[in-house]
């Protein structure tokens, strides 16, 4: 290791140790202040602060809560002992080392209190101090610990809950418009118990705590999801519903913050009165043409909707995920691209659910919309969509026809026909179509159009009971 680098680390480390010594000295001489401050901030009667300080080996400072319930105190002691044991086993024997534990408390009501323990280990062996967080939830009346997953109605079924946590975070920074962070978030919120083993609850929020690198990169450092109880309630055991919460704390600015949250614009920030257009791409994905299209869309910051064939999706999971993480909508275009009117009821059901299942396996959710091959459907086919809209189009440049396989022709067929609220039918398996896309985007952006997904178009212009959608032309808004 070059000398200057070593010096830098040593200097940094001694800075940390100095800080720790100051903190330890302060805590040792001012326990009353810490206690008093804590009481003011928390307001839950009977929670005090205890402290372990040890400088005989590595520098150790552990602040821990003490309550009026001895059974709870014993469990907290056992837990902090295990934290210290873990640190000593991992780093205790090596050179300079320091270990700090602090905690925060969260009151759901007078009985249910959660603690978040924050640990920081700094040693010669670590390039950076290692920070971790752990959750403990207790019932101060019974003395029992509630494992975080027991907050949930059904700890064995994390599907819906994990999806809610993912949806809560994905529209926010740093995930929004960032496929790499989005993919980490997707993996880190997969419906498995280890992803949700640390959660705390107060009278307004359920807070899911994440490990470093669980849902975001080191640079982004997302360590929690703070979910309003109203949103989390469908997944919470009844005794953790908001009706049973009580504010043991002073009112804060949260009510104001919440109102601001509600007034956030919809994803993309578009309004129903904007000039809207939805690009849709059918019959892919194809490893030959779809990657180029995704590059064009990314560079133009345009989101589109892909009606994919189940069998093609099955062989190109990477492309499906890329499109999804880059913000595009994925729709169902049947399993094998068979005209539904040529099929009996079993065949129709199989074509719809076959593609649903493949996409659900990749994206953990069924596509929200369906497009029938060749636009052919029947009332019977609609019954297999379980209420999801069947999406057609109102601009068709007939880009698949051999005579039209030229980017200039596709471009003119689109831009000469388009009006506000249209859904444009294109095929991403055609190279000539893909090459027309940057031209179409540039022209339509110049005319003031904004590009939305089909779901966004329906949300902005449609009605919840629209079952067959061909676009929402709004001639009144188009010059
Ligand atoms: Zn098709």
Question: Overview of this structure, please?
Answer:
This protein is α/β, with parallel strands linked by helices. It has 15 helices and 15 strands. It has 3 domains: about 140 residues, 2-Layer Sandwich (Heat Shock Protein 90); about 120 residues, Actin, Chain A, domain 4 (Alpha-Beta Complex), CATH 3.90.640.20; about 210 residues, TIM Barrel, CATH 3.20.20. The strands form 4 sheets. Strands 1-2-3-4-5 form a 5-stranded mixed β-sheet, with helices on both faces. Strands 9, 10, 11, 13 and 14 form a 5-stranded parallel β-sheet that branches. It has a 3-stranded antiparallel β-sheet with strand order 6-7-8. Helix 8 runs parallel beside helix 14 and helix 13 packs parallel to helix 14. The chain is elongated, with a radius of gyration of 28 Å. It binds zinc ion. The site of zinc ion has 5 residues, from loops. Zinc ion binds next to loops.
List the SSEs and their pairings.
Layout: H1 3-29, H2 31-42, E1 48-54, E2 59-66, H3 70-91, E3 97-107, E4 112-123, E5 130-139, H4 159-170, H5 179-188, E6 199-201, E7 205-209, E8 224-228, H6 229-232, H7 254-262, E9 275-282, H8 290-300, E10 305-308, H9 310-314, H10 317-325, E11 329-332, H11 345-363, H12 379-383, E12 390-391, H13 407-415, E13 422-427, H14 431-446, E14 449-451, H15 454-461, E15 468-469
Parallel strand pairs: 2-3, 9-10, 9-13, 9-14, 10-11, 12-15
Antiparallel strand pairs: 1-2, 3-4, 4-5, 6-7, 7-8
Zinc ion (ZN) binds next to loops.
């Amino acid at each position: 290791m070059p000398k200057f680098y070593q010096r830098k680390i040593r200097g940094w480390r001694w800075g940390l140790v100095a800080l720790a010594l100051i903190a330890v000295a302060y805590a040792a001489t001012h326990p009353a202040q810490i206690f008093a401050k804590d009481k003011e901030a928390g307001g839950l009667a009977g929670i005090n602060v205890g402290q372990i300080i040890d400088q005989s080996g590595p520098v150790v400072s552990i602040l821990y809560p003490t309550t009026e319930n001895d059974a709870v105190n014993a469990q907290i002691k056992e837990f902090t002992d295990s934290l210290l044991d873990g640190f000593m086993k991992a780093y205790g024997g090596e050179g300079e080392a320091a270990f700090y534990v602090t905690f925060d408390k969260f009151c759901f009501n007078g009985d249910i209190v959660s603690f978040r323990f924050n640990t920081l280990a700094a040693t010669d062996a670590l390039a950076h101090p290692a920070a971790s967080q752990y959750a403990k939830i207790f019932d101060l009346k019974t003395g029992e610990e509630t494992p975080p997953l027991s907050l949930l109605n059904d700890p064995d079924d994390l599907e819906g809950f994990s999806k809610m946590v993912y949806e809560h975070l994905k529209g926010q920074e740093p995930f929004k418009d960032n496929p790499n962070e989005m993919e980490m978030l997707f993996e880190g919120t997969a419906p498995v118990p280890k992803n949700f083993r640390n959660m705390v609850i107060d009278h307004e929020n359920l807070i899911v705590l994440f490990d470093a690198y669980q849902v975001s990169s080191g640079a982004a450092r997302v360590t929690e999801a703070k979910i309003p109880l109203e949103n989390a309630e469908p997944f919470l055991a009844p005794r953790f519903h908001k009706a049973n919460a009580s504010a043991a704390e002073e009112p804060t600015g949260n009510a104001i913050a919440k109102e601001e949250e509600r007034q956030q614009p919809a994803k993309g920030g578009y309004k129903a009165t904007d000039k809207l257009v939805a690009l849709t791409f059918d019959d892919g994905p194809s490893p030959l043409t779809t990657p180029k299209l995704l590059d064009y869309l990314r560079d133009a910051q345009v989101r589109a909707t892909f009606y994919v064939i189940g069998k093609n999706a099955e062989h190109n999971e990477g492309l499906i995920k890329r499109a999804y993480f880059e913000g595009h909508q994925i729709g169902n275009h049947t399993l094998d691209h068979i005209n539904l009117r040529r099929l009996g009821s079993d065949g129709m059901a199989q074509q719809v659910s076959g593609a649903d299942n493949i996409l659900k396996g990749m994206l953990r959710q069924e596509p929200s919309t369906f497009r029938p091959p060749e636009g052919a459907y029947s009332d019977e086919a609609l019954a297999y969509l379980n209420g999801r809209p069947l999406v057609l189009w109102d601009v068709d440049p007939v880009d698949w026809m051999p005579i039209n396989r030229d980017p200039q022709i596709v471009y003119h067929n689109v831009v000469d026909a388009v009006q506000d609220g249209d859904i444009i039918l294109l095929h991403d398996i055609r190279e000539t179509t893909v090459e027309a896309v940057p031209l179409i985007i540039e022209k339509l952006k110049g005319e003031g159009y904004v590009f939305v997904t089909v779901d966004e178009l329906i949300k902005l212009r449609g009605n919840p009971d629209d079952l067959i959608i061909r676009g929402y032309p709004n001639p009144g808004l188009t010059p």
